[in-house]
Amino acid sequence: FPMQMPELAKCSVLMRERSRVEETIHAMQRAGAGSLQVISDFDMTLTRFAHNGKRVPTTHNILDNRLLINEDCTRKVNLLNTYYPIEIDASRSAEEKLPLMVEWWTKVHELLIEQKIRRDMLAHAVKESSAMLRDGYKVFFECLAEHQVPLLIFSAGVGDVLEEVIRQNHVFHPNIHIISNYMDFDQTGVLQAFKGQLIHTFNKREGALSHAAGLRELQGRPNVVLMGDSLGDLTMADGVSEPQNVLTIGFLNDQVEERKESYINSFDVVLVKDETLDVPNCLLVALLLKTNQQPLETMQCISNFL
């Protein structure tokens, strides 16, 4: 097994129980593509955390653009970034963070609504931004689409912006379903509110449960590959009815030493400062092509999608 997947042997890949990971992958292989679904966070999971030493913008950050908001609003939004260290603070519990996350997201959304953002400017703002999907994203999206495996993207970001990022990268396929914070525009195309219940980092479980029944395509797919960059993302599969095998992959992008232990204890596979989708892609090739081939042939399978 290790021979098939050299990506899992890299020093940036941490596993608490390698044998359990292997068993889960084998069980998923036997069940086949028809029983698989992938659930993933978006910002800093499907998108890069950083590039050339600079942070890559999240969907909320992309809205910080002169086309959309004025300088005063930018200043106020930047002041609210003091909440980010709280979100990733390993010494605080999720319960402690919860009200502060609600406060953060609510304040940001209120500021954006005040700016009367125009729908027709979103695509331009995304194009001007330095938003980047992780290296290997084409393989990831194309592979899932080709095998008709549903990809549920569960994001505390802004759904309208998220969709535009995927669209501009030419990987918005019919197998993609998105749960996120969507903007509500009035008849003239101006932002007037955000739709539905607020989704933030630590209430994804409620969102998963409330949306699960409505997504018919996900029924009868008890095997899940779950990807996220926050411990709160682990609840995204809670809407799956009668799950059989769940394999969780955690991207540890930031504050590595402080958070390493909790990530290793929570995710099956932890990827440390890895800006690629190489490991998820390698897993997908193994699951969808049922490959028992040598590394070279496995990489050839991957290159077929490029």
UniProtKB/TrEMBL annotation:
Gene3D superfamilies: HAD superfamily/HAD-like, Pyrimidine 5'-nucleotidase (UMPH-1), N-terminal domain. It is found in: Cytoplasm. The keyword Coiled coil does not apply. Belongs to the pyrimidine 5'-nucleotidase family. Keywords: Cytoplasm, Hydrolase, Magnesium, Metal-binding, Nucleotide metabolism, Nucleotide-binding. Its main location: cytoplasm. Specifically hydrolyzes 7-methylguanosine monophosphate (m(7)GMP) to 7-methylguanosine and inorganic phosphate. The specific activity for m(7)GMP may protect cells against undesired salvage of m(7)GMP and its incorporation into nucleic acids. Also has weak activity for CMP. UMP and purine nucleotides are poor substrates. InterPro entries: HAD-like_sf, HAD_sf, Pyrimidine_nucleotidase_eu. GO terms for biological process: nucleotide metabolic process. CDD domains: HAD_5NT. One of its GO terms (molecular function) is nucleotide binding. It catalyses: N(7)-methyl-GMP + H2O = N(7)-methylguanosine + phosphate; a ribonucleoside 5'-phosphate + H2O = a ribonucleoside + phosphate; CMP + H2O = cytidine + phosphate. The keyword Cell inner membrane does not apply. This is 5'-nucleotidase. Its EC number is 3.1.3.5. SUPFAM superfamilies: HAD-like (SSF56784). It holds the Pfam family UMPH-1. One of its GO terms (cellular component) is cytoplasm. It comes from Lates calcarifer (Barramundi). Monomer.
